[in-house]
Amino acid sequence: MTAKERILKEYTRLAAAIENAKEGILIQDRERTILYANTSFLRTSGYTKEELIGKKASMLRSDQYNEQFHTDIIKVISQGKEWRGIYRRQRKDKTYYDVDMTINPLRDRQGNISEYVIVERDITDDLKLQQRIRQLQKMEALGNLAAGVAHDFNNILMPIIVNTEMALWDVPKDSATYAYLKLSLEAAEKGRELVKQIVAFSRPSYQENKPIKIGPVIEEALHLMKSTLPSRIRITQNIEAKYGTVLADPSQIHQVLINLFSNAAHAMGAKRGELKVELRNVLLDIEELVKYPELKPGNYLKLTVSDTGCGMSEEVMENIFDPFFTTKNRGKGAGMGLSVVHSIIKNHGGVIDVHSELGKGTTFNILLPLIEKDSIEERSTGQQVPRGNERILLVDDEEAVLNSFQRVLTRLGYDVIGKKDGAKALKAFRARPKAFDLVITDQIMSGLSGTELARKILDIRPNIPIMLCTGFSNKINRQKLRRMGIRELILKPFTTGEIAQTIRRILDQR
User: Which CATH architecture has domain 210-371?
Assistant: First the structure.
């Protein structure tokens, strides 16, 4: 083989490598005229060679940047320097994709710049994955912050609610004082609901998951919304997956639906519009899960809620799942709705994403893993406020909570011994272990925690009923508590009726 043949073979090999490279490669001359585009560049951009070769490279400029941005790049490469950065390109069909771009000058034998080589790698999916990971990390950090806020706020709210309820018992219903107290209780209840949303956002531990069919829950939520939505908003539904079963908390799924439906109605405002709800079974394989690194291949239930409202900008979409972020007018919303939705779906092993365009509406897609079990448990209800006469050992290190709790239980007929810390409570129980019918303890206390106190008490008397109260804890759940021997968990702040019913249920089970 001659030297000429060898050189020709090397050039042929090099040309084939460039043409078949995974990266997009573009070559242009000093006047920015396109001389070459490889197959990868053509495939990703959507253009043909005939549409590019001989044309000015300015035709490929993205409308995402101003003129100065491109001028600065040209200035760098005209000085013979390399430019590298992330660039958002625009395809022929006007959609966008992101590339990691490098531009290098080529020089002739005299050392003058003759051409420029652009090498770029499509990193659109990589950036989406990074954004999702950052969002997950941010939500985890915010969840930890919310945990502390919820715990402290619950301890503040509980005495307000309990003492106001007791005061209402003693005041004539036709008095002005009764009306004032009623307003105070309503305000406290609103605060309680807000804390519930914060806790739902930040704690995965207290879900009452069971096999449920989402279809009936959707129909129930839509029926509720129909009575509140104006007639100008049309509701359409396509519930294909009537028999798909997921492991979920029905009340939390209902909360997700109401939040999404309400946001859709708000987005459509005073205009005519359509709220569309779809539910179907989907099979996700490995390729389809690239943008959902949290999920595994398998069968999922896909819930889609879309509206024809005002839509959202990219900046708004980046923040909609953040707590207290809202686009509503002051006083119209606390900004917790979508953050709670995000947290609930995540805690159920699913994902939620959003697609929106200004002026064209918004679509939320939710994926939840399907399970095989089809038996559905019914929800139980009951709001009685029973009384009793048993002796209760009550433990809480917050004096206002302890005093309020003790007074209300005494008024319900119980004989209550209150202790402000776990050590004193344990000492009292050791002295007379058979004198108590029930132990109620707070979880987060200085010294002994509620679960630590429960273990020591159960070592002394294994069958004593114990109830754990907490404003927040992300380290325990009902299943673990039952394995420890603790009968019940109740979240602060609770109403008199709720605590009375729970106490009676525990004591009657003896």
Answer: 2-Layer Sandwich (3.30)
